[in-house]
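STRUCTURE:
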Protein backbone atom coordinates (compact mmCIF):
# COMPACT_ATOMS: atom_id res chain seq x y z
CA UNK A 1 0.00 0.00 0.00
CA UNK A 2 1.54 3.30 -1.05
CA UNK A 3 0.42 6.64 0.34
CA UNK A 4 0.65 9.66 -1.91
CA UNK A 5 3.00 11.48 0.47
CA UNK A 6 5.40 8.52 0.55
CA UNK A 7 5.26 8.06 -3.22
CA UNK A 8 6.14 11.73 -3.61
CA UNK A 9 9.19 11.52 -1.36
CA UNK A 10 10.46 8.36 -3.07
CA UNK A 11 9.95 9.83 -6.52
CA UNK A 12 11.67 13.08 -5.62
CA UNK A 13 14.69 11.19 -4.32
CA UNK A 14 14.96 9.05 -7.45
CA UNK A 15 14.62 12.04 -9.78
CA UNK A 16 17.10 14.20 -7.86
CA UNK A 17 19.95 12.39 -9.59
CA UNK A 18 18.75 13.30 -13.09
CA UNK A 19 16.66 16.45 -12.83
CA UNK A 20 17.45 19.91 -11.46
CA UNK A 21 13.72 20.33 -10.82
CA UNK A 22 13.13 16.96 -9.11
CA UNK A 23 10.63 18.22 -6.52
CA UNK A 24 8.44 19.91 -9.12
CA UNK A 25 8.80 16.98 -11.54
CA UNK A 26 7.69 14.54 -8.82
CA UNK A 27 4.63 16.61 -7.96
CA UNK A 28 3.61 17.00 -11.58
CA UNK A 29 3.99 13.29 -12.34
CA UNK A 30 2.12 12.16 -9.23
CA UNK A 31 -0.67 14.68 -9.76
CA UNK A 32 -0.97 13.46 -13.35
CA UNK A 33 -1.25 9.82 -12.33
CA UNK A 34 -3.85 10.68 -9.69
CA UNK A 35 -5.79 12.89 -12.09
CA UNK A 36 -5.44 15.84 -9.72
CA UNK A 37 -3.78 19.20 -9.78
CA UNK A 38 -0.73 19.90 -7.61
CA UNK A 39 -2.71 21.84 -5.01
CA UNK A 40 -5.00 18.86 -4.42
CA UNK A 41 -1.97 16.65 -3.78
CA UNK A 42 -0.93 18.63 -0.75
CA UNK A 43 -4.43 18.57 0.73
CA UNK A 44 -4.70 14.77 0.69
CA UNK A 45 -1.27 13.30 1.54
CA UNK A 46 -2.77 10.13 3.05
CA UNK A 47 -4.52 9.16 -0.17
CA UNK A 48 -3.61 5.62 -1.18
CA UNK A 49 -2.45 4.79 -4.73
CA UNK A 50 -4.04 1.85 -6.54
CA UNK A 51 -1.80 -0.80 -8.09
CA UNK A 52 -2.46 0.64 -11.53
CA UNK A 53 -1.47 4.10 -10.31
CA UNK A 54 1.71 2.79 -8.69
CA UNK A 55 2.63 1.01 -11.94
CA UNK A 56 1.87 4.10 -14.03
CA UNK A 57 4.03 6.22 -11.75
CA UNK A 58 6.94 3.78 -11.98
CA UNK A 59 6.72 3.81 -15.75
CA UNK A 60 6.72 7.63 -15.89
CA UNK A 61 9.63 7.73 -13.47
CA UNK A 62 11.68 5.42 -15.69
CA UNK A 63 10.94 7.55 -18.74
CA UNK A 64 11.87 10.73 -16.86
CA UNK A 65 15.13 9.13 -15.76
CA UNK A 66 15.69 8.30 -19.44
CA UNK A 67 15.55 12.01 -20.22
CA UNK A 68 12.00 12.61 -21.48
CA UNK A 69 10.75 16.08 -20.52
CA UNK A 70 7.98 16.08 -17.90
CA UNK A 71 5.84 18.14 -20.28
CA UNK A 72 5.75 15.23 -22.76
CA UNK A 73 5.06 12.70 -20.01
CA UNK A 74 2.02 14.57 -18.74
CA UNK A 75 1.10 16.23 -22.05
CA UNK A 76 0.94 19.67 -20.46
CA UNK A 77 3.06 22.73 -19.78
CA UNK A 78 2.19 26.08 -18.28
CA UNK A 79 3.33 29.17 -20.18
CA UNK A 80 2.29 32.73 -19.34
CA UNK A 81 -0.38 31.24 -17.03
CA UNK A 82 -1.85 29.30 -19.95
CA UNK A 83 -2.25 25.56 -19.52
CA UNK A 84 -0.95 24.27 -22.86
CA UNK A 85 -1.17 20.85 -24.42
CA UNK A 86 2.32 19.76 -25.42
CA UNK A 87 3.33 16.72 -27.50
CA UNK A 88 6.69 15.58 -28.91
CA UNK A 89 5.70 17.35 -32.15
CA UNK A 90 6.36 20.72 -30.49
CA UNK A 91 9.19 22.27 -28.53
CA UNK A 92 8.44 22.41 -24.80
CA UNK A 93 7.66 26.08 -24.08
CA UNK A 94 10.45 27.61 -21.97
CA UNK A 95 10.07 30.28 -19.27
CA UNK A 96 12.67 32.43 -21.04
CA UNK A 97 10.33 32.74 -24.03
CA UNK A 98 7.95 34.67 -21.77
CA UNK A 99 10.43 37.53 -22.24
CA UNK A 100 9.35 37.69 -25.89
CA UNK A 101 5.71 37.97 -24.83
CA UNK A 102 6.48 40.74 -22.33
CA UNK A 103 8.53 42.70 -24.88
CA UNK A 104 5.77 42.45 -27.49
CA UNK A 105 3.13 43.57 -24.99
CA UNK A 106 5.24 46.60 -24.07
CA UNK A 107 5.96 47.46 -27.71
CA UNK A 108 2.30 47.26 -28.68
CA UNK A 109 0.91 49.11 -25.66
CA UNK A 110 0.14 52.21 -27.71
CA UNK A 111 -1.07 50.40 -30.84
CA UNK A 112 -4.82 49.88 -31.15
CA UNK A 113 -5.94 46.59 -32.74
CA UNK A 114 -2.39 45.49 -33.56
CA UNK A 115 -1.58 42.83 -36.11
CA UNK A 116 1.02 40.32 -34.98
CA UNK A 117 2.88 37.54 -36.79
CA UNK A 118 4.41 34.64 -34.82
CA UNK A 119 6.90 32.63 -36.89
CA UNK A 120 7.51 29.02 -35.85
CA UNK A 121 4.66 28.95 -33.37
CA UNK A 122 5.01 25.32 -32.27
CA UNK A 123 2.51 24.74 -29.45
CA UNK A 124 1.21 28.26 -30.08
CA UNK A 125 2.60 29.43 -26.74
CA UNK A 126 3.73 32.92 -27.76
CA UNK A 127 0.87 33.62 -30.17
CA UNK A 128 -1.75 32.48 -27.67
CA UNK A 129 -0.22 34.44 -24.78
CA UNK A 130 -0.24 37.62 -26.89
CA UNK A 131 -3.75 36.96 -28.16
CA UNK A 132 -4.97 36.41 -24.60
CA UNK A 133 -3.31 39.62 -23.38
CA UNK A 134 -4.55 41.65 -26.33
CA UNK A 135 -8.04 40.48 -27.31
CA UNK A 136 -8.13 43.37 -29.81
CA UNK A 137 -5.09 41.99 -31.66
CA UNK A 138 -5.21 39.90 -34.81
CA UNK A 139 -2.52 37.25 -34.51
CA UNK A 140 -1.23 35.09 -37.35
CA UNK A 141 0.82 32.05 -36.34
CA UNK A 142 2.92 30.12 -38.85
CA UNK A 143 4.67 26.77 -38.56
CA UNK A 144 6.21 24.41 -41.10
CA UNK A 145 4.92 21.39 -39.19
CA UNK A 146 1.25 20.51 -39.67
CA UNK A 147 1.50 18.25 -36.61
CA UNK A 148 2.69 21.18 -34.49
CA UNK A 149 -0.08 23.40 -35.81
CA UNK A 150 -2.66 20.78 -34.89
CA UNK A 151 -1.44 21.02 -31.29
CA UNK A 152 -1.50 24.84 -31.44
CA UNK A 153 -5.02 24.88 -32.88
CA UNK A 154 -6.26 22.53 -30.13
CA UNK A 155 -4.71 24.85 -27.55
CA UNK A 156 -6.50 27.85 -29.04
CA UNK A 157 -9.80 26.02 -29.04
CA UNK A 158 -9.49 24.65 -25.51
CA UNK A 159 -8.48 28.08 -24.16
CA UNK A 160 -11.25 29.81 -26.16
CA UNK A 161 -8.77 32.14 -27.83
CA UNK A 162 -10.33 33.15 -31.14
CA UNK A 163 -8.05 35.91 -32.43
CA UNK A 164 -5.27 33.65 -33.77
CA UNK A 165 -5.15 32.25 -37.31
CA UNK A 166 -2.82 29.31 -37.95
CA UNK A 167 -1.05 28.90 -41.30
CA UNK A 168 1.14 26.03 -42.46
CA UNK A 169 4.35 26.87 -44.29
CA UNK A 170 7.90 28.05 -44.12
CA UNK A 171 8.49 31.38 -42.35
CA UNK A 172 6.97 34.22 -44.41
CA UNK A 173 5.78 31.85 -47.14
CA UNK A 174 2.12 31.60 -46.18
CA UNK A 175 1.46 35.27 -45.27
CA UNK A 176 1.54 36.74 -48.78
CA UNK A 177 1.68 40.53 -48.97
CA UNK A 178 0.26 41.14 -45.48
CA UNK A 179 2.09 43.56 -43.17
CA UNK A 180 2.17 43.42 -39.39
CA UNK A 181 2.73 45.83 -36.51
CA UNK A 182 4.91 43.23 -34.81
CA UNK A 183 6.71 40.06 -35.81
CA UNK A 184 7.79 37.73 -33.00
CA UNK A 185 9.68 34.48 -33.27
CA UNK A 186 11.38 31.85 -31.19
CA UNK A 187 13.04 30.09 -34.12
CA UNK A 188 15.53 27.21 -34.01
CA UNK A 189 18.89 28.69 -33.03
CA UNK A 190 21.10 25.86 -31.81
CA UNK A 191 24.17 25.05 -33.95
CA UNK A 192 23.92 21.70 -35.77
CA UNK A 193 26.95 20.27 -33.97
CA UNK A 194 26.19 21.76 -30.54
CA UNK A 195 26.48 19.10 -27.85
CA UNK A 196 23.49 20.71 -26.12
CA UNK A 197 21.29 18.95 -28.70
CA UNK A 198 22.05 15.68 -26.89
CA UNK A 199 20.06 16.77 -23.85
CA UNK A 200 17.24 17.94 -26.13
CA UNK A 201 16.97 14.64 -28.02
CA UNK A 202 13.26 14.16 -27.30
CA UNK A 203 12.31 17.50 -28.83
CA UNK A 204 11.83 18.13 -32.57
CA UNK A 205 15.15 18.88 -34.24
CA UNK A 206 13.35 21.13 -36.72
CA UNK A 207 12.50 23.45 -33.81
CA UNK A 208 16.02 23.51 -32.39
CA UNK A 209 18.87 23.20 -34.90
CA UNK A 210 19.60 25.91 -37.47
CA UNK A 211 22.81 25.40 -39.42
CA UNK A 212 26.51 25.51 -38.61
CA UNK A 213 26.27 28.58 -36.36
CA UNK A 214 22.58 28.25 -35.40
CA UNK A 215 21.80 31.51 -37.21
CA UNK A 216 20.19 30.20 -40.42
CA UNK A 217 16.59 30.84 -39.34
CA UNK A 218 17.38 34.11 -37.55
CA UNK A 219 19.15 35.37 -40.68
CA UNK A 220 16.16 34.55 -42.85
CA UNK A 221 13.69 36.08 -40.42
CA UNK A 222 15.66 39.34 -40.06
CA UNK A 223 16.27 39.69 -43.80
CA UNK A 224 12.62 39.08 -44.68
CA UNK A 225 11.05 41.21 -41.96
CA UNK A 226 11.29 44.79 -43.33
CA UNK A 227 8.75 44.31 -46.12
CA UNK A 228 6.43 42.39 -43.78
CA UNK A 229 6.30 45.16 -41.17
CA UNK A 230 4.26 48.33 -41.14
CA UNK A 231 6.41 51.51 -41.03
CA UNK A 232 8.08 51.58 -37.62
CA UNK A 233 6.84 48.06 -36.84
CA UNK A 234 8.84 45.93 -34.46
CA UNK A 235 10.68 42.64 -34.91
CA UNK A 236 11.42 40.68 -31.72
CA UNK A 237 13.34 37.41 -31.85
CA UNK A 238 14.61 34.95 -29.28
CA UNK A 239 18.17 33.66 -29.67
CA UNK A 240 20.98 31.84 -27.90
CA UNK A 241 22.84 33.48 -25.03
CA UNK A 242 25.95 34.02 -27.16
CA UNK A 243 24.15 35.19 -30.31
CA UNK A 244 23.15 38.71 -29.23
CA UNK A 245 25.86 40.55 -31.16
CA UNK A 246 25.27 38.46 -34.29
CA UNK A 247 21.52 39.09 -34.22
CA UNK A 248 21.99 42.82 -33.63
CA UNK A 249 24.25 42.84 -36.68
CA UNK A 250 21.66 40.94 -38.74
CA UNK A 251 18.97 43.46 -37.81
CA UNK A 252 21.20 46.45 -38.48
CA UNK A 253 22.20 45.03 -41.88
CA UNK A 254 18.50 44.70 -42.72
CA UNK A 255 17.95 48.40 -41.94
CA UNK A 256 16.39 48.04 -38.50
CA UNK A 257 16.58 50.97 -36.10
CA UNK A 258 16.84 51.18 -32.31
CA UNK A 259 18.19 47.63 -32.23
CA UNK A 260 18.56 46.37 -28.66
CA UNK A 261 19.04 43.10 -26.83
CA UNK A 262 17.27 42.10 -23.62
CA UNK A 263 18.38 39.58 -21.00
CA UNK A 264 16.28 36.77 -19.58
CA UNK A 265 15.78 36.11 -15.86
CA UNK A 266 19.09 34.24 -15.79
CA UNK A 267 20.83 37.43 -16.97
CA UNK A 268 21.63 35.97 -20.41
CA UNK A 269 21.14 37.84 -23.67
CA UNK A 270 17.98 36.17 -24.96
CA UNK A 271 15.90 38.47 -27.16
CA UNK A 272 16.69 41.23 -29.64
CA UNK A 273 14.31 43.82 -31.03
CA UNK A 274 14.44 46.44 -33.74
CA UNK A 275 12.10 48.80 -35.57
CA UNK A 276 11.63 48.88 -39.31
CA UNK A 277 12.46 52.27 -40.80
CA UNK A 278 9.63 54.75 -40.28
CA UNK A 279 10.54 57.10 -43.13
CA UNK A 280 12.12 54.81 -45.67
CA UNK A 281 11.38 57.06 -48.65
CA UNK A 282 12.77 60.26 -47.12
CA UNK A 283 16.10 58.64 -46.40
CA UNK A 284 16.61 57.52 -50.00
CA UNK A 285 15.29 60.48 -52.00
CA UNK A 286 15.74 64.20 -51.53
CA UNK A 287 13.06 66.90 -52.05
CA UNK A 288 11.79 67.31 -55.60
CA UNK A 289 13.32 64.08 -56.86
N1 LIG B 1 16.01 27.57 -25.62
C1 LIG B 1 16.17 26.27 -26.20
C2 LIG B 1 17.32 25.57 -25.52
O1 LIG B 1 18.44 25.88 -25.75
C3 LIG B 1 16.38 26.34 -27.67
C4 LIG B 1 15.13 26.74 -28.33
C5 LIG B 1 15.30 27.17 -29.73
O2 LIG B 1 16.21 26.77 -30.45
N2 LIG B 1 14.41 27.99 -30.15
O3 LIG B 1 17.07 24.70 -24.73
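SEQUENCE:
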Amino acid sequence: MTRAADALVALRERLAAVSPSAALDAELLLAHVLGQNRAALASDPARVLSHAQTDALSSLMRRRIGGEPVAYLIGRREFWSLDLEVTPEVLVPRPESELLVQLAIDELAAVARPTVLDLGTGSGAIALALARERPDATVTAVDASPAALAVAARNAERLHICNVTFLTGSWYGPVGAAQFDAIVSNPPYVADQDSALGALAFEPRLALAAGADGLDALQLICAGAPVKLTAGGVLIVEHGATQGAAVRALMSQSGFERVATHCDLAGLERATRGNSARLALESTSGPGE
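REMARK: Residues 281-289 have pLDDT under 50 and may be disordered.
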